[in-house]
Prior knowledge:
Blueprint: H1 3-26, H2 32-44, H3 48-66, H4 72-91, H5 98-122, H6 128-140, H7 144-161, H8 168-202
Amino acid sequence: MDLRRLFRLYAGLVLFGVSTALMVRSGLGLMSWSVFHEGLSRQTGISLGLIVNLVGALVLLIWIPLKQRPGLGTISNIVVIGLAVDATLAVLPAPDQLALRIPLLGSGVLLNGFATAAYISAGYGPGPRDGLTLGLMRITGFSVKRARTAIELAVLAVGWLLGGTVGIGTLLHALAIGPMMQTFMGWFVTRDEKRTRSANAGGPEVDVGDTSRPAGGGPGGSG
């Protein structure tokens, strides 16, 4: 087990939770799965972080008929992100001034892209929501774009009906997450390749994992 990749996995998951909390405190709109989570939280009175964990666990149960296999990253995704969301919300107040809310939104979206790329590139297994996408592709024959879009729109619509926050942040995240992930993923993969070449020059090859496929709770995933 590569300790650097393991650290990247958990750092990415924690930062993903922090980024979600930043967007919540901005009050300017959430990513689609977070809209769903917040809507459930408002209707049930359960903390947002615990809702994130519970939904992740329920989605994982859907993997059984879809014949998806969880990994360390899958289980960690369910536990860590929700804890990080609640911990950040506990210490981060919600500002009233728009001049403060806009930077919270911008930093949340940017951090989310970095965090997603970090734990995906660690290569320890897909997040529960990404596994749902892959399973839907398998049983329907949908492309990844079509399957992901269908799920994202469905949870966004239900979350909005439940009272989740939809706004400019929702659109901004949808437009920015792809380019940001591509940029940050390229940076992580390049670092891994350089480390592998360096190790090969002076000793045995270091396993850097498969960084070519999605392995975490991706965009909207809030994991």
